[in-house]
Amino acid sequence: MANVTPAKLDNLEAQQQQNNNVRWENTDHPPHRPWDEDTATAKLFECSRIKALADERDSVQKKTFTKWVNSHLGQASCRISDLYTDLRDGFMLTKLLEVLSGEQLPKPTRGRMRIHSLENVDKALQFLKEQRVHLENVGSHDIVDGNHRLTLGLIWTIILRFQIQVIKIEMEDNREIRSAKDALLLWCQMKTAGYSEVNIQNFTTSWRDGLAFNALIHRHRPDIIDFKKLTKSNAAYNLQQAFNTAEQQLGLAKLLDPEDVNMEHPDEKSIITYVVSFYHYFSKMKALAVEGKRIGKVLDQALEIEKIIERYESLASELLEWIELTITIISNQKFANSLAGVQQQLQAFTAFCTLEKPVKFQEKGNLEVLLFSIQSKLRANNRKLYVPKEGKGISDINKAWTRLEKAEHGREVALRNELIRQEKLELLAQRFDHKAIMRETWLNENQRLVSQDNFGYDLPAVEAAMKKHEAIEADISSYQERIQVVVELAQEMASEGYYDSKRISAQKDNIMRQWSLLTELVSARRARLEQNVALQKIFQEMVYMIDWMDDMQAQLSSKEFGKHLLEVEDLLQKHSLLEADISAQSERVQALNGEALKFSELAGYQPCDPQIICNRVNHVQSCLEQLQELASKRRKELEASRQLWSFFQEMEEAEAWVREKEHILSSSQSCGKDLSSVAKLLSKHNILLGELGGRCSLLQSAMRRGEQVLLRKRCGPSAIQEKIREVRQHWKQLEELAASRLQKLQGALSFYQFSTDTDDLVAWLQDAYRLVSSDDFGHDESSTQSLVKKHKGVVEEVDKHRAAVLTLRKQLAALAPEYHELVDVQVRIVEVEQLYGEVAEVAVLRREWLQDALAVYRMFGEVNACEVWIDEKEQWLNRMELPQKLEDVEVVQHRFESLDQEMNSLMGRILDVNQIVQQLVDGGHPSSSEVRSCQDHLNSRWNRVVELVEQKKDHLDSILKIQNYLLECNEIKSQVWEKRKAIESTQYNSGDLGSVLSLQRRLSTMEAALVVLEPRLIELQQEGEALANTHPAQAMEILMQFEEISEEWEALKRTLQGCEDSLTVASRLQQFIQDLDSFLTWLVKTQAAAVSEELPGNLSEAEELLNQHASLKEEINRYEEDFAKIQAVSDLLALEEADLPYLSLQQWLQKLDVGWNKLLEMWESRREVLVQAHIFFLFLRDAKQAEVCLDSQETTLAHTELPTTVEGVEKGIKKHKDFMTTMDLNLQKTTMALKAGESLIRQGNLYGERVKDKMDALQAKSQHNLQLAQAWMQRLSDHLQLQQFLQNCHELDGWVAEKETLMAGEAPRGTDALPRHQRAPKRWLRHRAFMAELAQNKEWLHKIEKEGHRLINEKPELAETVKKKLEEIRLCWAELEAATQAKAQQLLEATKADQLMQSFTDLDKRLRHMESQLQVADAGPDLASVNTNLKKLQTMESQVEGWCKEVGELQTQVAALPMEAASKELVDERQKVVGTRIVRLIEPLKARRRILLAAKEVHQTSHDLEDEMAWVQDRLPLATLKDHRDNLQTVQQFIKKNQNLRREIQVHKPRMDDVLERANSLAAIKSPEVDSVRLLLEKLSELWAALQEETERRQQLLDATYQVEQYYFDVAEVEAWLSEQELFMMNEEKGKDEQSTLQLLKKHLMTEQTVENYAETIAQLSRQCRALLELGHPDSEQISRRQSQVDRLYVSLKDLVEEHKGNLEQQYWLFQLSREVDELEHWIAEKEVVAGSPELGQDYDHVTLLQEKFTEFASETGNIGNERILAVNQMVDELIDYGHADAATIAEWKDGVNEAWADLLELMETRAQMLAASHDLHKFFNDCKDVLSQIEEKKQRLPEVTTRESKTSAGTLQRMLNSFEQDVQVLVTQVRQLQEVAAQLRTVYAGENAEAITTKEQEVMRSWKELLSSCEDCRLQITTTTDKIRFISMVRDLISWMDTVVCQIGTGEKPRDVSMVEVLMNYHQGLKSEIETRNKIIAACADLGKTLVLNKSPASEEAPPREADDQEERDD
């Protein structure tokens, strides 16, 4: 090694180390160096010495470790006796680890086999590996095989992990912490430091004298040991004293004996194990003692805390008093009612806020600090926190301070509001005075304007007045807002308490009174105007209506009524339109009259004289009535004319239509040539008949109307009657022709229909005959089957046509006589009937022939198929040569299994063939002989095949047995040879210890394998001898095989024995250099393995690589300790290796360090790759397994057949259910594979598509298999019902036959030798049992019948078989019942007496046997035996009870049974003996039950107590765990575990309470048997209480820790967020304009909402803090400090938010107001330019246009301006109230805008007044001009009236005069208005305007007077002319009438008869009446003529002559 350099270490191939079990622990022996070996003798001596010491040490360790294990297993009520054997099965090892760790290990596997033990030990070792316990080459097989050294090493490793490893001792300087063995040694040294004779330097010799053990006990418990009496020389006593004291006083198990310690070389591990128990015990005792030292500090601080509390209370009281006093002062809201006084109060308040309040705030903070100090000190002493008195706590002070701040804020706000209010009131007063003066002036002017009332006298004048009034109203209405502004100003000042509010109120009231007066005047004037307008409109409408009615009367007076129908219709339509107009206008006239009359009834103001209104209404109404009478009369005349002309037209149309139809019917004589032509003719005739019916009703109605016309005599009656008679005659002829034609057509239709049906039927029968007479019967089964189906259809059709053939005769009889008497028709029917009979007969014969052919073809088909299969199998069997190789033999055997299934199937087909043949032969088939020969040939071939198959099977079985034997021989021979070669290859050739130990293990494994192999050799020998006997030809080959095995076996034994003889135990530890070389070699090899890039190709490779990689990690972990030790002893190695340079050694170690770190990195990267590949291949494996299962399921479901027996079906169902269960189990594999695939897809695996395809295939196949399985299960269930019924019938039939045979036969053999009294009862018993069986089986019969009926209902095809079977069973059953009853009667009488005697005898025997059983008094040693005895006792009691009942029944039978005297006496004696014995048994039974129940209760309670104690002990370590870590996640995990434990305890509590309650009740009994229960009860109670207490204590500790950790976590998050927001709020960014400021403000509002929402989080933290402080947590001071910091941060943040928000809002409002003010000022300036225009108009039109435009301008400007001014003022007021920083500037802006608006309003008002005055003046001049023009126009119209006097009628002149007068009346109103306007204008204008007004007025009045004079003259002239014209017209009419009457009277016609005389008299009387009526008109005409004469009218000269003529005519 001196020549090795660091560069060569990478490729160094060192010797492989074989055993890693012994590394660096055994430092007692020097390292073995090959170059320093002594002689062979020295080596042997040393080896023997070492072996002896090792055995002695192992013995001590075994005893110590056994006791240590038992001390812990006692908690689980377990114990071991031999450490090596009892741990082999793994049960005790698992239980030990559960007790030590407090965790639940996997449940051990039950079983005694080696594999079960290996599995259990593997579970325990795996648990140790999970606990990071390093096991050096300890495998499960070592523990199971009982390896002493490794078993001790395992127990020592467990002790180190669970007992010693937890020991840690901290040095005084806190610089070093020692652990494990060194810490334990240091603890012992520290505890025994004061004992002079005790010097502990190790764990071997330092403890031999026993003083060290006693010193440890005396240090902690000086009361139980007197250490001064102990001497170092008496080691055995010292040790015994210490061990006994520890066991008896401390409860420590006695792990050592004195002789184990008092020896030359005590075992270090045993002593350490024992000392550790002392350490743990005294550590717990110390922890309890330390708690008492903490009480002393509390009392010292109590007085100091009390003083601080008193100081706190006094300061708090003073501060609260000051706060309350200050709140009272500043809450006073009384202010001075002047601006100066309010300013002085504001200055005083500012001084309070800046000087006095900060001092008190400092005092408040000092109070909080003082209270926090008090709480901190109390919390540090774990005392109850100080709660201040009610009203003096920090919360109370904070609340009072909050109220103070609220009062302060309210005071400040109130002062500022008051200051602003005073300034605002001054401005309002100035505005009110200015506006009030303007409003009063305007109101006075408008009142004077609306008081005038001159409207005019016609409609245009009144409408003009209305428009003017509406203008006035609009002006007044628009001014209401201005009045309201004044009122609002006054109300606002009054509400604000202005000092001069009385003056303001008086001025406001004056304005309101004037405004009310103005509105009243306007309303009254408008009402009067509206009445005038309405009345004038009504008068105008009346004039229009009168003119219209005059025109209508002329039209209605016409005498034209029409000369034909069309003309009459036209006149009627025109008249209807006239009537509609009259009706509409009449409603209008009525409405006008009603409206006009309302004005005549008005009270008060009346727009017109009521008499004028009434006259006009009456005139209009009379004209309307005359018009309506004329219209009604004309309509009647027109209606009569229309009826007459309509009748004549309808008659002419009807006559023409009848002539047309007569011509049609008379010209068509043909009835058709075939069916279709007849049908068409008949259809046309039916249409004609329908037309006749429709025309008939129309003709009747027309004739009735003609008769009505005759009654009215409007035309000549002869013409109408002649027309009606002609039409009726033509109609009757038409009806007769139609009826005759219909009868002929129907007869022809029936004949042609009959002929068509007959032809169709004959054609079909001929076709059917051709089909049924065919010679084709098919050439095979399929063709014949097809022909049968076709023939069946033909037969059905033939049957259907039978009815048609039978109905032909009936149809013939129904034909017309000219048709049914034809000879051809009769012959046709006979032919049809004969043809149908032939077709039916031939069809029956063909059906029979087809059935026979079908049966033959079926039989031949089956035979051919069977023979083909038989030929194939015969050839295969004949060609087959059975192989000699085993693989080929198995293949052939599998083929024979498939052949059996095929043969079973074929056998069924052969049976079917035989059945078909038998049916054909029985039916007498023509080919019976051929069929029979075919059957015989088939059966003979089948029998030959069966025999050949059986021969082949037998030969195959013999070959298979021999081949299996030879194969097994070869396998065993090869195994023996391989083992021998393995032993020979492992000969000992090296001298290192690793190779020796490896060889030992291999030989031990080999021996175990040979032990297993030897029994198999014996079995093989026996099998070979048997085969040699059965196969003599091959006997030599068989026996030779076994001889060869025997030779190999003997050679193996010799080789093994030689190897064992050559081995000796000689090994030394390797040198450091050798270990270093080995480690470097391992490192290089391991790096090469870790860096491998090999990827797996399948799952086995992946698992193998992963296992290799995991093994590599385990190997690395094992070598980690070696790596550390190599580095630790590097200095020592450098000194020992003198020839090795020190620098070279350092280079080696540095290279080693780099290589180690590189190895770890390589391993981790390689592991990631392998895990991914392994997961993918796991999925493929699971998918493959699932797919294989699904394929197997599909194959199984595809090869299923229905069994033919119940057992077969049930087995099939059971098998299928098992199969479905297996499917359900396998479905889990599929589901797991699918879930794994989904997981791979979600993770984005590279093989995602393959995974998806595989998943889809699995799902589809699984669903398919499930459907197949369910369908097959349903088929099996149905088939099972049928087979069960048949089996039940067969069983019952067999049972009945068996019983009938038994009843008919002799008595069974063997009973004749019995005595008579035994023979009869036995026969009776047998017969009674048979009867009972018969009665019981009656239900069997009913069940079978019910099942049969159900089968009949569900499956009708089995009804015949089932019914037949049921009838046979019922008949057999009835016969059996009759025979049974007869025999029962015979045996009953002979049996009863013997039976009674035998019953008493049997009872006596059973009672004596029970007495002997009750004499045994032992209750049993354990619970199981007691329960067994109780069950036996219960059986005895039930037996006794049954025997009592039996005795009672026997007594009843004795009394009822007639017996002889001797027999009766014997029976009575036996009865008494039995009764006495039963009575004696009752008391022993009760005593026995009491004893057993008491014993059971004791044993049961003890068992329950032990179980509960074990349960509590298992959970107590978890409850006493003290660790809770220091982070939130870990604490949550501990809480979850403890909560689970608490729930488990809570669930178990009822069980524990029940056990303790039962144990307490037993413990109260004083009995030796209960002592063990009492001890267990006490121990369980203590453990249970400790468990509950520890669990609750740990829960409280964990809850407190969790709250603190959660609080710290939340506080950290809150502080980070608050800091971030505070930095954001400190940004001083401001907007440059309105838009940018708005964006900043929106952003800030979102931030503010977020901060407000965060208040809940802060409050939640505060609640958590208070809860922790109230609980008195040790970190209360830090928690409180963190919470205060969070509160301060949040308050600071909110202040920053509010401040920033206020700045942004003020900036935005200022920008917004500035924009609004600028826009408003610019707008007002524009409007002032328009309002200041000086233009007043050049004339009336111009000024009107200017006024309309300005009115529109003023309205628009006023509305918009008011809105904008109000908005600006409101914005300004809000900003000033808010306390804006620029309030002064804002107020200046407001004043400027308001002044500009007021100026604009005044300017507009002034211009409006000027335009109104100009308008009035120009309107007056314009009105005068209009009136003058109208007067001139009227003057010009007067001459025209005069000139038309002679040309027009009187009515026309009168209407013209009335129209002219109405026009003049309109001018009257206009002239009056002009006079009024002139008077008003003269009062307003002066100078030139006044003179011009007067001149114009005089000119108008002068023209008006001239017009009135001309009108009066014209009216007089027209009246006279009108009377003249009317008088002349009347005279003319009367003269004309008189002439007519005179002519009529003077006619010379003389009457011819009496009726004519009466007619003339009546006519003459009518003339007389008419003359009398005319007398009144004549008188009126004479009066008018006299009037004209008296008035001296120009027409008076003509009046007297005309009057005289008139009188003369009248007299005549």
Number of helices: 50
Fraction in helix: over 70%
How is the biggest beta sheet arranged? 2 strands, antiparallel
User: Would you identify the regions where 5 or more consecutive residues have pLDDT less than 50?
Assistant: 1-39, 1064-1070, 1135-1143, 1306-1317, 1841-1847
The spatial strand order of the largest sheet comes to 1-2
| Number of β-strand runs | 2
Fraction of residues in β-strands: under 5%
What overall geometry do the principal axes of the alpha carbons give? flat
Class per helix and strand makeup: mainly alpha
Which whole number gives the mean pLDDT?
76
End-to-end Cα distance, whole Å, is: 192 Å
How big is the Rg?
Answer: 71 Å
Please explain how this structure is put together:
82% of the residues lie in helices and 0% in strands. A two-stranded antiparallel sheet has the order 1-2. A hairpin with a 6-residue loop joins β1 and β2 (177-179). The protein starts with 39 loop residues before the first helix and ends with a helix. It has 2012 residues and is mainly α. The longest helix is centred in the last third of the chain and has 61 residues, at 1783-1843. α16 packs antiparallel against α18 and α40 packs antiparallel against α41.
Q: What attributes characterize this protein structure?
A:
2012 residues, two-stranded antiparallel ribbon, 2 strands, 0% strand
Quick recap of the structure?
The protein is mostly helical and 2012 residues long.
Strand-helix topology:
Elements: H1 40-73, H2 83-86, H3 91-101, H4 114-130, H5 140-144, H6 148-164, E1 168-170, E2 177-179, H7 180-191, H8 211-220, H9 235-248, H10 258-261, H11 268-290, H12 296-300, H13 302-330, H14 339-380, H15 394-450, H16 459-478, H17 480-495, H18 501-556, H19 565-600, H20 610-667, H21 675-712, H22 717-772, H23 781-813, H24 817-820, H25 823-879, H26 886-922, H27 928-985, H28 993-1030, H29 1035-1062, H30 1072-1090, H31 1099-1128, H32 1130-1136, H33 1142-1198, H34 1206-1242, H35 1248-1304, H36 1316-1354, H37 1359-1414, H38 1423-1456, H39 1461-1519, H40 1528-1563, H41 1571-1625, H42 1634-1653, H43 1655-1671, H44 1676-1731, H45 1740-1778, H46 1783-1843, H47 1850-1884, H48 1888-1945, H49 1954-1990, H50 1999-2011
Antiparallel strand pairs: 1-2
